[in-house]
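User: quick one, fold this
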Amino acid sequence: MLSASTTRVAARMGVKLFTRAVPIRLTDPFQVHYSGSNAGSAIAQNPFPATVRGTQEKWLKRFESEAIPEPETSIVNIIAHVLELSGPSEVGNHQNSSLNDAQMAKIEELCECRLARMPIQYIIREWDFRDLTLKMVPPVFIPRPETEELVELILQQMENQEKTLFLEIGCGTGAISLSLLKHAPKASAIAIDQSRIACELTRENAESVGLTERLRIFKHKL
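Assistant:
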């Protein structure tokens, strides 16, 4: 509020005074543009958005920088496992799908295990062997790709046999016995392992593929 004396002095000098506040528009600090070495938006953009594509790219880059074996296979299987997809090949159909906080946290947890060099089969707790999906748990041995070739050779030898009873020593996950039994419907098997965990795992896998009637499992040390 201006005083009366100030108003009279201003009138004699021919100066017009404003008695109402004049709004001043300030520049939005987030619209300020910078030049030089610090040019760019004031708000940093996340290079890896919370989508399947962004998460896959983020962890693929991290795995590669840490020299993790089979980095793309690792992250694709982890994402497929967390999203409960039918298989890793389905990940490509969900590239633009958003991930919620729980899914992001679970993927990060499993990826940290992979960075610690834990086998991907133990991380997602399952793996495909031929046409079977079998549960995997440490420290039970993980079947190698060469084992699938062994099964194929045995099946060729069993083609002309009416009934076959075979023995697997050190059954582990039960991959060999179960794969043979699935493709030889008249065969039966005995599986032996000195590990209680391996015997329980073989039994659990046999139940999941419906082959318990033709497989006997024993814990025994030879």
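User: anything notable?
Assistant: The radius of gyration is 34 Å.
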